[in-house]
Amino acid sequence: MKLICIGRNYTEHIAELENQKPEDPVIFLKPDTSILLKKQPFFIPDFSNEVHHEVEVLVKIKKIGKYIQPKFAHKYYDEIGLGIDFTARDLQHKLKEKGLPWEKAKGFDGAAVIGEKWINKSSFSDINNLNFSLLKNEKTVQKGNTALMLWKIDELIAYISQFFSLKIGDIIFTGTPAGVGKVATNDQLTGYLEENKMFSIKIK
């Protein structure tokens, strides 16, 4: 199982981090050790003073695929979820300034939140028009809609499969909208996909 993450897939988020709009999807991986264990809090790591929350729609792959055509991509997943790509932003900035890979800022232990539930895509009228949000201490801090993605889910699956064979259980983090921000001890983060509460975690 691997976690395949997409960066810079929402225009407003690109702008808030002062990044350039990419010509192709930006892909990075998180190891399975980055998955936050169920019912566990997220502990801010000692090596960062600026960990940011990035709420994202997730897709779980259900069968093996390689060089998948966009028109067939919908056959490779049924379940949609919600999660958080935690990012040690201060560490990421230092690594980027030196032209170094930034896996340490994205793939540390606990940096990937995967919601406790998955919803069959047939439950939604249109997966390319899904509202999702993140609340911090009961206040909405991130709000997005999959219609605003630069690359839609099926396009991402087709693109990713050119480089990485997709296997059963792989999870794609499809990118975050604007509103990312620093977490602090005792924060409570709650994620919603449409009206469905997908996760709630405590920051330690």
Could you please describe the fold and organization of this structure?
- With 204 residues, this protein is α+β, with helices and mostly antiparallel strands.
- It has one domain (3-202): Fumarylacetoacetate hydrolase, domain 2 (Alpha-Beta Complex), CATH 3.90.850.10.
- The chain is 13% helix and 33% strand.
- The protein is built from 4 helices and 14 strands.
- It has helices at 11-16, 89-97, 103-106, 153-160, and strands spanning 3-7, 26-30, 51-53, 55-61, 77-85, 87-88, 112-114, 119-120, 131-136, 139-145, 171-173, 181-182, 188-193, 196-202.
- Strands 1, 2, 4, 5, 7, 8 and 11 form a 7-stranded mixed β-sheet that branches.
- The mean pLDDT is 94.
List the keywords.
alpha+beta, single chain, 7-stranded mixed beta sheet, Fumarylacetoacetate hydrolase, domain 2, about 200 residues, globular, 4-stranded antiparallel beta sheet
What is the CATH top level name? Alpha Beta
The secondary structure category is: alpha+beta
Q: Helical residue percent?
A: 10-25%
Report how far the terminal alpha carbons are from each other.
27 Å
CATH 2nd-level architecture: Alpha-Beta Complex
Beta strands, count:
14
Percent of sequence in beta strands: 25-35%
Roughly how many Å is the radius of gyration?
16 Å
Biggest sheet descriptor = 7 strands, mixed
Uncertain segments: none
